[in-house]
Each structure stands twice: as C-alpha cells, then as structure tokens.
C-alpha cells in the first residue's frame, strides 16, 4: 500500500480587508442619504405638533366670530381669557409654551394667531413665526384660514404650504 500525502484545505476564518471596506462604503452611502431625510422627518413631525397646538385656538376664534355676528373687529390683542362680549376668546387660561412653540399672540381686530417657534424645530424654523389668519365667510358658519410664515427654507416651507 502506498501512502499518499493528503493536502489540507485552508479554511477561511473571518472577512478579507476588501470585504470589510465594501461593507463600510455601503454603510457610509446609506448614512449620507438617510440622515438628512431623518432630519426632514423630525422637522415635519415638530411642525405637525404646532398645528395640533393651534387647533383649539382656531376653534376659539371661530366661536368668537360666530358669537359676534361674523365680525372679528372687536377682538383685543392677546385677550385669551376675557369674555366673548368684551373682546376675549373666553378660554380658561392663556396658551402655554410647548417644546415646539415659544409664544402665542392674538392680533387685535383680525383674530390672527401668531405662533413663534421654539429653537427646537430645526434650522429652517428656529425662532420663526407662523401666522394663522381667519377669513370669516359672510352669511356662513364656515371659517377659512390663511397660513403664512417668515421661514424661507425647506422643509419648513413645504410643510407649512400643505396647511393652506
């Protein structure tokens, strides 16, 4: 019997350098695309919270206008808690700041609600204002709102444009 020398197959243990570099490159490309998109989505979510916070105030202005025969002219500035017969909105308390809203203002004679955004929104909205202006329709119970802002960069402008 002849003895033969058997060759041993070399078993690979781990990844080669090129395989690791490919994985790192793929992760880098995905991160370069995903991080800006994630930031846009967080800004949009924060702006959505602004609309939710303003809705009760819009309802109060609409109720005031209806109570006063369709005319917002007698609304007094930032009179959140005053009686509806005295230029107020009749709320139990003035609106309070949130993580997204630094302050609220009620414009006299028009009932426009001006919201100053907090510095947590994102670069496009920090410190900017959003104005919700009511437009009562004569002879109707329908109140339409115009939304304007002094924010000039996306995604703030594109998100706010959806509210109109």
Can I get a quick summary?
The chain has 164 residues and is of the alpha+beta class.
Description:
The chain contains 2 helices and 4 strands. With 164 residues, the protein is of the alpha+beta class. The protein has one domain (17-161): Glycoprotein, Type 4 Pilin (2-Layer Sandwich). It has a 4-stranded antiparallel beta sheet. Strand 1 (101-106) and strand 2 form a beta hairpin. The radius of gyration is 29 Å and the shape is rod-shaped. The relative contact order is 0.13. The model has no long low-confidence stretch (mean pLDDT 88).
Shape: rod-shaped
First and last CA, distance? 93 Å
H/I helix tally: 2
Mean pLDDT: 88
Largest sheet: 4 strands, antiparallel
CATH architecture term: 2-Layer Sandwich
Low-confidence stretches: none
Helix/strand class: alpha+beta
Series of H and E elements: HEEEEH
Give the strand order, joined by hyphens, for the main sheet: 1-2-3-4
CATH top level assignment: Alpha Beta
Strand content: 15-25%
If you consult CATH, what is the topology?
Glycoprotein, Type 4 Pilin
The rounded Rg comes to 29 Å
- Count of domains: 1
Total number of beta strands: 4
CATH superfamily assignment?
Glycoprotein, Type 4 Pilin
Q: How much helix, percentage-wise, in residues? A: 25-40%
């Amino acid at each position: 019997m002849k003895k033969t020398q058997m060759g041993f197959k070399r078993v690979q243990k781990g990844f080669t350098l090129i395989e690791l570099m490919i994985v790192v490159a793929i992760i880098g490309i995905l991160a370069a695309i995903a991080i800006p998109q994630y930031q846009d989505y967080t800004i949009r979510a924060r702006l959505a919270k602004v609309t939710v916070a303003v809705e009760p105030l819009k309802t109060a202005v609409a109720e005031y206008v209806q109570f006063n025969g369709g005319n917002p002219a007698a609304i007094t500035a930032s009179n959140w808690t005053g009686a509806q017969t005295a230029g107020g909105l009749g709320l139990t308390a003035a609106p309070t700041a949130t993580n997204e809203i630094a302050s609220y203002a009620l414009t006299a004679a028009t009932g426009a609600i001006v919201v100053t955004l907090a510095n947590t929104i994102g670069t496009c909205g920090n410190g900017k204002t959003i104005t919700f202006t009511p437009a009562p329709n004569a002879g109707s119970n329908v109140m339409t709102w115009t939304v304007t802002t002094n924010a000039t960069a996306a995604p703030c402008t594109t998100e706010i444009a959806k509210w109109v």
